[in-house]
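From the methods appendix. Each design record in this collection lists the tokenized structure first, followed by the designed amino acid sequence. Records were kept in a plain field format so they could be parsed without special tools. The example shown here is representative of the layout used throughout.

RECORD:
FOLD TOKENS (420 positions):
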């Protein structure tokens, strides 16, 4: 299977400008390609993960990646996928963020011996003469055509600043400069960047009379069509000081059943044949697939040792939750209560157990955790929240293993252990 065919089979490719030319370039290791990263924070996050994995795959196939750090474009801010204007950052903040990105990218990409490049578009953007730039580049862009771009259309109702309107031209100019400086013949990016990428291929054609190519990769969305990589506490970062390896592991271990195989294909380097076998798995095997996914991605970002620690820590924490809950067997049931010693109801019991371990679990969230579907016992692990009744959404309990649950069942029996 060629590298292009593998990208298709994994569901990575969204749009391409010239499929046959792109196939030839990447299958034969002739692509010098770039992906841009605007340093809007001091760490990369899960939203960047797809791009980093793609760069790694293509480099392994003999192609040369260029990681373009947006030290210049970050001064403007990309309007794509946003309903409001990005916060303006100082040059000092941007430079600090650029430095942080470099360290993290080295885990994915081999920059030794010129096998890959890391460049900063601030090197050519920040020193531009405005009038000269307008005269050289401006004539090649149609405002009417730019306004039809999806990244601008979605901002028109709330207002699009002239500052952000320039972003497409700046990104196009990046491709133009990279083509001249480094022979960069391809650009890859998220599907929401398509209009900006076409602007670059067109500018190269108009200014240099040369062909350049663009390919977008699918956005990392869950089965509900929402972007992955966020939790209640915010983004899932690649920096271990912002998202610990354990929390990173847990994020992927807890993906929805409907998303696990897709994430496996898009993000891991496991052979497709192995993943296709996992597609047949059901019940408790899906939990095993999630563990494989979580370990593979944690190992990729944080290393084998941290992935093993996260795996062990997860099992220890689950058992600690169960052990803690068991000591309250026999304590009273109180409707509306949340006290483990003086009395709690169904939701209050599980809320209070998890609160002891630092997890804030709202009553409604606890009540609805498993209310939509009663899971088969083969899918459960000790420490899972489960729905065990019928007709009442607040019948939630803690699964403790061996087909049993602990829950606050009613005034007559209080907190007790039952069969699931």
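DESIGN:
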């Amino acid at each position: 299977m060629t590298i292009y065919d593998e990208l298709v089979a994994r569901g990575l490719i969204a749009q391409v400008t010239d499929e046959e030319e792109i196939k030839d370039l990447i299958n034969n290791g002739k692509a010098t390609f770039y992906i841009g990263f605007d340093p809007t924070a001091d760490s990369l996050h899960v939203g960047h993960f797809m791009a980093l994995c793609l760069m790694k795959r293509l480099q392994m196939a003999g192609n040369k990646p260029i990681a373009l750090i947006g030290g210049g474009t970050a001064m403007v801010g990309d309007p794509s996928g946003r309903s409001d204007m990005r916060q303006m950052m100082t040059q000092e903040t941007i430079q600090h963020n650029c430095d942080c990105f470099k360290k993290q990218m080295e885990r994915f990409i081999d920059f030794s011996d010129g096998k890959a490049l890391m460049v900063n578009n601030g090197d050519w953007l920040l020193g531009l003469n405005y009038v000269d730039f307008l005269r050289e580049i401006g004539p090649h862009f149609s405002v009417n055509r730019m306004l039809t771009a999806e990244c601008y259309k979605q901002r028109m109702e709330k207002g699009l600043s002239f500052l952000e309107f320039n972003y497409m031209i700046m990104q196009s100019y990046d491709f133009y400069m990279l083509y001249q400086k480094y022979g960069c013949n391809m650009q890859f990016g998220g599907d929401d960047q398509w209009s900006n990428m076409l602007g670059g291929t067109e500018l190269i054609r108009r200014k240099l009379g040369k062909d350049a190519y663009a390919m977008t990769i699918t956005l990392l969305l869950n089965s509900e069509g929402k972007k992955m990589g966020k939790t209640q506490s915010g983004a899932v970062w690649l920096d271990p000081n912002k998202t610990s390896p354990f929390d990173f592991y847990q994020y992927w271990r807890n993906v929805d059943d409907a998303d696990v195989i897709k994430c496996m294909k898009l993000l891991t380097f496991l052979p497709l044949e192995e993943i296709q076998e996992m597609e047949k798995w059901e019940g408790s095997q899906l939990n095993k697939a999630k563990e494989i996914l979580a370990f593979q991605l944690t190992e990729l970002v944080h290393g084998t040792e941290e992935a093993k620690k996260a795996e062990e820590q997860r099992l220890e924490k689950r058992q600690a939750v169960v052990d803690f809950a068991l000591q309250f067997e026999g304590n009273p049931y109180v409707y509306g209560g949340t006290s483990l010693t003086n009395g709690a109801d169904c939701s209050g019991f599980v809320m209070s157990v998890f609160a002891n371990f630092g997890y804030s679990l709202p009553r409604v969230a606890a009540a609805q955790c498993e209310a939509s579907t009663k899971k088969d016992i083969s899918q459960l692990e000790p420490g899972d929240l489960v729905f065990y009744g019928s007709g009442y959404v607040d019948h939630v309990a803690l699964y403790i293993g061996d087909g049993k649950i602990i829950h606050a069942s009613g005034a007559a029996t209080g907190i007790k252990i039952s069969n699931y």
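APPENDIX NOTE: The CA atoms of residues 138 and 169 lie 8 Å apart.
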